[in-house]
Specification:
This is CHRD domain-containing protein. By secondary structure, the chain is α+β, with helices and mostly antiparallel strands. It has helices at 2-22, 118-122; strands spanning 25-36, 43-51, 56-63, 72-79, 89-97, 102-106, 126-131, 142-148.
């Protein structure tokens, strides 16, 4: 009887925790693929979820070799397409942890002062790039990239990749 009661308590706690997690989202969600952009074997996706209150949560997930180090890969949301040279950074996303290849960022005001709601994010003319390093020669190594918004359906050609600057 005690074991049965313990099972019910654990099941209730698990259900309660997952219920609260779902309550912070409106149910609006869109995903964009991120493509291998160098000799490093990574792919990934960007998931944009609308939070209650209208803010946006951007989750980056990469598929590839994880690391046991505390290293993190810098990630940026840019204005324009991935093949646009010197496209300005729209928002600095939280770095992608090498241990689990994930990053979560609540989007704030963009570098031009504008803000995005869910519908504006779906139609945003921009792209995401995840770099190997934050500075130096490895900054020019893009692990994954992909367009956000309507241009995401145009496909991806690694040879067309523009190396981005650090400009905002």
């Amino acid at each position: 009887m005690k074991k049965l009661l313990l099972v019910f308590i654990i099941a209730f706690l698990c259900w309660s925790c997952s219920e609260r997690e779902d309550e912070k989202y409106t149910g609006n969600q869109v995903e964009f693929p991120l493509f291998q952009s160098s000799t490093y074997d990574f792919t990934g996706k960007l998931t944009i979820r609308e939070l209650i209150g209208g803010s946006l949560e951007l989750t980056l997930r990469m598929d590839g070799l994880k690391s046991n180090t505390d290293y993190a890969y810098p990630a940026h949301l840019h204005f324009g397409s991935y093949d646009q040279k010197d496209s300005p950074i729209a928002f600095l996303l939280n770095p992608v942890a090498a241990r689990n290849l994930e990053s979560v960022t609540v989007l704030g005001a963009l570098s031009d002062g504008s803000t995005l709601d869910f519908e504006a994010a779906r139609s945003f003319d921009g792209h995401v790039k995840i770099h190997l390093a934050n500075e130096g020669p490895d900054y020019g190594v893009i692990l994954v990239a992909g367009n956000v918004g309507p241009k995401s359906s145009l496909g991806f050609e690694m040879e067309q990749m523009a190396v981005c600057g650090n400009n905002y």
